[in-house]
Amino acid sequence: MTNREIEERLEHRGVKLTAMRLLVYVELEKARRPLSLRELEDRMPTAERSTIFRALTLLLQHHLVHDIEDGSGSLRYEICTSDDHHEHDDRHIHFYCEHCHRTYCLHNTRIPQVDLPEGFQMTSINYMVKGLCPTCASHADAL
Q1: Angstrom distance (rounded) from CA 35 to CA 14
Q2: 40, 50, 67, 70: least surrounded by Cβ within 10 Å?
Q3: How far is CA 40 from CA 3, 19, 26, 51, 98, in A?
Q4: Domain CATH for 51
């Protein structure tokens, strides 16, 4: 996406454009995988943690990003690609590498069907698979 397309996306969702909001969105888009607040800080060394966090919070509220709890103790954030203002598009599987501590989106992996008992209503779900990513697995095989 170009910066102008990102600006239009934010404005379309009712987010007033600021340099920090644009920078946070661009960093998440460039990463092409979910990032933690700490990872965003590392990518944006001149920005204050609280400013990044406020931008993330606003982007979450407007469904431009969604958060993922990957079991590592920190939330990770990724871009929502849905055009729906009220629903996240986070219903895909995530993979957490226990060696390099990165989280990946597995958009093309089939999501298992969950049949809930009568009366239960799902509002969200977190599909998290843990193990070794291809890079870490190849290093482990070499040993």
Answers
A1: 24
A2: 50
A3: 18, 15, 11, 11, 20
A4: 1.10.10.10
Contact 34, 76 (CB under 8 A): yes
Domain holding 80, by residue range, is: 3-142
Distance of alpha carbon 136 from alpha carbon 6, whole angstroms: 33
Each residue of 18-65: pLDDT tens digit?
999 999 999 999 998 899 999 999 999 999 999 999 999 999 999 899
Q: Structural domain tally of the chain? A: 1
**How far is Cα 109 from Cα 95, in angstroms, rounded to an integer?**
11
Alpha-helical regions (H) of the chain: 3-12, 19-31, 37-43, 49-61, 134-142
For 16, 87, 114, the CA distances from 119, given in Å and listed in that order, are 40, 22, 14
Q: Judging by beta carbons within 10 Å of its beta carbon (0-12, 13-18, 19+), is residue 102 exposed, middle or buried?
A: buried
